[in-house]
Amino acid sequence: MDSIIARVDAIKSKPKQSDIALIHSSLEVLQDSMKKQVGAIEKALNNTAEMKSAANAHKKRTKIRNLQWKNDFKANANEVGTKMLQGAMKIINNITSAILSTDEWSNDRSAVSASSVSVSPVKAPRQKKLETGDTAKTAEIRLPKPANHKEYNPQECVKVFKSFKERTEEILGPNAGTMATQSYLKRVKEEMISKKYVPVKSSQLNDTIKASKEGTVLPVIWGMDGRRAIMDLDELRGQFDEYSTKHVNKGWNNDNTLNALWDKKRELAIAAGKDPDDVKKPDKETVSAYHSALLSEVDLA
User: Fold this and answer.
1) Is 226 left (phi over 0), alpha (psi -120 to 50) or beta?
2) Residues 255, 287: Cα–Cα separation, whole Å
3) Are 168 and 187 contacting, i.e. CB atoms less than 8 angstroms apart?
4) Residue 267 or residue 107, greater confidence
5) Which of 53, 69, 71, 178 is the most exposed place for a label (fewest CB within 10 A)?
């Protein structure tokens, strides 16, 4: 094309008839060439559109095939599942029929269905557990007032707790399980702390109850752990009973408790080879604690 344009430019300066004819001829060749190129471009464009259309058609056909496959799979799966379930039910019915046909079943039980045999024995126990559980959470707890009208001593506290523990069947019913019982007794201890009938936290209260269960002689004063008790409360109770028998019209007062403890301290001093006259009388706090513990023994006996 450049050569043709150069030739045209040269001819413009001195045009000849032959040159003009040549230009026309060259232009016709150029026109044909351009037509061929345009045709090739149009063909290429048409091919691209056809390829794109073919790709879209293939994609649609693939999507339709996949959807059809899924539908067929679901239909087959439902059919197979139904057949398996029917087969299982048939086996169950055959087994049930075989059981009901034995001599161990009476004639009036021969009509019992497989569903009633498998379901009927299950629900009742759970309902009872729920009822006792609810009772454990709602049962009223009435704690007896402390003997000193203020707070329980350790031995009195354990005695009150045991009295509730022994009555759990009466309160919760004969079918109360372990969890319901523990829940109820936990509420008893929480009530003691809430009413300030014990001057300790739940951990120390649990330790006190556990020590009593293990046979440990409990102190009569909270926080007395590590200090030796003067005498066992049962021994003091024995002296109280003896005094009450001899002195029907006289009551046991704080001085009687003081003298009993003092006599016991002298007795322990003699057993240890010490002078009993050097023994000091028990302090007021100790006497008060023992006296309250004794009153709780008498009141709760």
Assistant:
1) left
2) 9
3) no
4) 267
5) 178
